[in-house]
Model the fold of this input.
Amino acid sequence: MNTLETIFSRSSVRKFKAKKVNQEDIKTILKAGMSGPTCVDSKDWSFLVVDDQKVLKKMYEANGAPARPLLGCAFAVLICGDYSKAFQYAKDYYVVDSSIAGQNMILAAWSLGIGSVWLGTWPQMDRVFEQRKLFDLPKDQIPHSIIAFGYPEEVKEKEEYYDESVVHYNKW
Done:
């Protein structure tokens, strides 16, 4: 799949086949996440890969009902902002950097035929604290988001999202 085809055809997948994803594909997905730009090249994120169904269930319970796709996915990645690596004058750039990493992982997965869905954690601090507690994360690791991955149960046709009314050139 070429880049634009990947971007334009990707959609969120919430139901997955009961099929494992091989380690090579997981590594490719993580590598894609690490390939995105970060503030002053800080690489201020870390990734926790979870494929244990019992732990995925605990992650779901910690994040609440919208995280239901964790109950059937092959694996998930908890993206954390790493404050120890963050830009010293504006540490909260980790939020943007983590988002870029997540989007890269989602697109890489789709190009491999693996579906995904973004499950928000930050800025809902109750979710942040529950994920931190679940994994006993160091203080400098801030749970940002969870992405559930797996082979899609079904693929729905993607609609066109381009909306000329939100585009402005040279003036408002």
Notes: The longest helix spans residues 94-111. The radius of gyration is 17 Å.
